[in-house]
Amino acid sequence: MLVTIAHAKDDYFRDTTCFPEQVISAGWDCRVTHEAVAEYTINPDSLSQGEILEGAFRCTNSIDSYWGDSDYLTMLVHHGCRSTSVGDLIILEGAGAFVVMSCGFKAKEKDPVEPIRDAELAISEALAYCTDEVKDALNLLVSLAVAKVSE
């Protein structure tokens, strides 16, 4: 089983509204709020889901030495990483994403509005290059889409 750790980005620290890049294929993209920092493979046969999550948390925390120097982790970034903490995600291949809570972990449920939020962000970046009429039309489309999905 592939285990991926995604840290909340500083600008969105503790924002747990989406999934990291590794599960975009399931329709989610959290590159806005989280950054996948490390992954490793584990044989889950003799471990419970809770034990796997606890192990992932423990091995991505610096206690006696920097956790990124571990031989069994594959670092996905080229900069130093902080320890895993509240608001970060642990993704278990085939089992979904789990939010690190102050005590334990909570399964991350899909938010049907999230793809709309990602589109809204892309549109807002594009608006800098548009006329006022185009901006108004795009903002109206986003508002209608959010209203439709929220029904």
Could you walk me through the main structural features you see in this protein, from its secondary elements to its overall organization?
With about 150 residues, this protein is α+β, with helices and mostly antiparallel strands. It has two domains: about 1-105, no CATH class; about 115-150. The chain is built from three helices and six strands, in the order ββαββββαα. The protein has helices at about 50-60, 115-125, 130-150; strands at about 1-10, 35-40, 75, 90, 95-100, 105. The chain has a six-stranded antiparallel β-sheet, with helices on one face. Helix 2 packs antiparallel against helix 3. The radius of gyration is 18 Å and the shape is elongated. About 20% of the residues are buried.
Could you write a compact summary of the structure shown?
This protein has 151 residues and is an alpha+beta fold.
